[in-house]
Amino acid sequence: MARSVRQSKILELISTREIETQDELVECLRAANFDITQATISRDIKELGLIKILSAETGKYKYSLVDSGEQAVSNKYISIFKEAVISIKTAQNLVVLKTIRAMANSICGLIDKLNLDSVLGAVAGDDTVMVILPTNEQAQKVATTIEALIHF
């Protein structure tokens, strides 16, 4: 089957199930009559811009598409994110990210691109990003999601 059909099926699977590993994704695709290898899945994951996020339901990591309506966050951008963020702390309904000098704007852009639930906005200085949420609980959830992204 064509790559676009296979990739559409991958997006359907990750949106309806919590798929934790490439092997699990291969099994699901084979069950749907796709003759697939793990290497092909690995390329598809990269092309689709899939990342692993912490599931709110199970607390386990699962594949997810990060999309802001423009394009998925690239793995290079996530690598920069991992290197640039020094700390993540919550202060009531705020998440404060400390970054290496002059990287806050880039990190703020990524936060916007992630389209995280409940985020009202993000503001950047030179080495600090402040993410604003409606409640303390939502701030804690977003902080946990961002930490999972860094430790992926």
At a glance:
The chain is an alpha+beta fold. The chain has six helices and six strands; from the N terminus they run H-H-H-E-E-H-E-E-H-E-E-H.
List the domain count as a whole number: 2
CATH level 1 name of the largest domain: Alpha Beta
Q: Quote the average pLDDT.
A: 85
Spatial arrangement of strands, main beta sheet: 3-4-6-5
Largest sheet: 4 strands, antiparallel
Query: What fold name goes in the CATH topology slot of the largest domain?
Result: Gyrase A, domain 2
What is the end-to-end distance? 31 Å
Q: SSE order in H/E notation?
A: HHHEEHEEHEEH
Q: How many individual β-strands?
A: 6
Please state roughly what percent of the residues sit in beta strands, choosing from under 5%, 5-15%, 15-25%, 25-35%, 35-45% or over 45%. 15-25%
Structural class given helices, strands, pairing? alpha+beta
**Shape type:** elongated
Rg calculated over all Cα atoms: 17 Å
How does CATH name the architecture of the largest domain?
2-Layer Sandwich
What proportion of the residues is helical, as a percent range?
40-55%
| Uncertain stretches | 68-72
Alpha plus pi helix count: 6
Describe the structure.
47% of the residues lie in helices and 21% in strands. With 152 residues, the chain is an alpha+beta fold. The protein folds into 2 domains: 3-65, Arc Repressor Mutant, subunit A (Orthogonal Bundle), CATH 1.10.10.10; 75-150, 2-Layer Sandwich (Gyrase A, domain 2), CATH 3.30.1360.40. The chain has a 4-stranded antiparallel sheet with strand order 3-4-6-5. Helix 4 crosses helix 5. It is elongated, with a radius of gyration of 17 Å. The model is unreliable at 68-72 (pLDDT under 50).
